[in-house]
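Incident log, structure service

09:12 report received: a user says their structure output differs between two submissions of the same chain.
09:20 pulled the input from the user's history:
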Amino acid sequence: MFSVIFPGQGSQIVGMGKDFYQNFIEVKNYFERANELLNKNLTKIIFDDLNNELGQTENTQPAIFLVSYSIFKTIVKETEFNINDAKYFAGHSLGEYSALCCANSISFDQTIRLLKYRGKAMQNAVPNNEGGMVAVLGANINNIKKILEENKDKYSCYIANDNSIGQIVVSGKIDSIDFFSQDLKKNKIKYIKLPVSAPFHCPLMKNATNEMKSIILETEFKDPTHNIISNVTAKPVSNSDEIKKLLIEQIEKPVRWRESVLNMIGSGINQFIEVGPGKVLSSLVKRIDRNINSNHINTLADFKNLSNDRS
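09:34 re-ran on a clean worker, output below:
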């Protein structure tokens, strides 16, 4: 049994999806529709990024979804591999929206619209450069929780992503991130400050939650055709009302990716197929369990290998 997984922010790269765009008219149509819905030339931003706009959250989120969705639909239409035989669909943060759209819970147009507002809301929730994130490497999550708890009077930082064994991401205001980083150094724990402009998936995103709540609630969701693994609970969800509730919570709650993968493996999944730019998630899967098969499809060569292997 296999699961399909969709990447989140950080997987973007200039030129992503271009080989699909050049070879499949349907993909070109998706890109043109996205340009129309966003009232901007997202295609040019993705393929050229002359003004460093791809890294702006309001562009990154719809761009990654657009590429992921385009590749997924091409697999469905152009290969004999039935990707819809997957037991679960899952995505990392904004990737959960890709999962929901590919599982027919929300339409393409709705997803672009939601991510347009979500990207702007998250980008504007905290003044630019007042918040940040740091990736903690090689540490046990309980040790990080202990450091945060013991120093809660000194600074306020929050676990934002539990990505894999030995990779945890922490969010906070810049001064808190600096104090936290000093404590990591004292404890000889490796870390990398991430090039982001906001502290995602923590209570500092409260303004974004408030802004997105009404937009999500007024959007029509259907029960998905596949169980979706929620970032908030790390468990399957298939009820549209519950999905809405969890998407609202997701903005401030940590992404429980490690637990999500372990829960899917525990239910019999032995292969993960990452659809979309990069190979971040398939790499994380291998770190979580090296015995599990993990593939990524983000180029025409990957797509052709899938066609040859599966058809």
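09:41 both user submissions now match this output. Likely a transient worker issue. Closing.
09:42 reviewer note: The chain has two domains: 2-125+203-310, 131-193. Residues 2-125+203-310 form a domain with the Malonyl-Coenzyme A Acyl Carrier Protein; domain 2 fold (CATH 3.40.366.10).
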